[in-house]
Design brief:
By secondary structure, the chain is an all-alpha fold. The chain has a domain of 97 residues: Serine Threonine Protein Phosphatase 5, Tetratricopeptide repeat, CATH 1.25.40.10. It is built from 11 helices and no strands. The chain is flat, with a radius of gyration of 30 Å. It starts with a helix and ends with a helix.
Length: 230
């Protein structure tokens, strides 16, 4: 019993000693701790203040500005979509004015696609590469559009890289088979029948319900014929 009592007393003394050291530390560093706590509070207030009074309103303004630009984009009025109509902003103005907002980021994607359709392929690549997408569909389409631009610039190897990136970036039935098919065609152009066969077989295996899978056997057969596998 004595040993148990001694052990308990030792634990109490250890706790008291630890508390005492903590109190001494607080007393010795009171000013520093106060500055740290105040600093944390200021950072939190600045964060929520920025979000409420700056970031939030700018995001809403950017969304409003995007409406007319997207309208022109849907109507294939690419110059108006890019540069505005004199009253409403185009995608380029939105990028300049609201580049750090979600809408400003999306405007980069739209601007890239506009330039792609206008045949200004390097500009298309520049804007699409600056787009930071996490959407299931749009992020893949952005990579695929870069691939289309490189194909138009006769840089087939880079085009294939971006087609495969588009297919493998959050794989899904809508985007992946489209760009796997484009990668297969590009491989055929450079005579890489082995890789062309591989991507066609991926479509058949991984996306059997996709439209691209309907006639995929004939593409596989063509690659096998060129590889002397028939």
């Amino acid at each position: 019993m004595v040993k148990k009592k001694d052990s308990t007393e030792e634990r109490i003394e250890a706790v008291e000693s630890a508390l005492s050291k903590t109190e001494q530390f607080i007393e010795s560093n009171q000013k520093i701790l106060t500055y740290v706590i105040v600093g944390i509070i200021v950072v939190i207030l600045l964060f929520f203040g920025y979000k409420k009074f700056i970031s939030g309103p700018r995001e809403k303004a950017a969304q409003t500005a995007m409406f007319k630009a997207e309208y022109y984009f849907e109507k294939d009025s690419l110059d108006l979509a890019l540069n505005g109509d004199g009253e409403s902003n185009g995608f380029l103005d939105i990028i300049d004015d609201y580049g750090f907002t979600k809408s400003g980021n999306l405007a980069r994607y739209y601007a890239g696609v506009c330039y792609l359709n206008k045949g200004e392929y390097q500009k298309a690549i520049d804007y699409l590469k600056k787009f930071d997408g996490d959407d299931l569909i749009v992020s893949g389409m952005a990579s695929g559009a870069i691939g289309d631009a490189y194909m138009s610039l006769n840089n087939t190897t880079k085009a294939i890289d971006y087609y495969l990136d588009a297919a493998d970036n959050k794989p899904n039935d809508f985007v992946s088979p489209v760009y796997l098919m484009k990668a297969g065609w590009a491989y055929e152009i450079i005579g890489n029948w082995k890789e062309a066969k591989a991507v066609y077989e991926r479509i058949k295996k991984e996306f059997p319900q996709a439209r691209e899978a309907r006639d995929i056997d004939k593409y596989i057969a063509r690659t096998k014929a060129n590889l002397n596998e028939l």
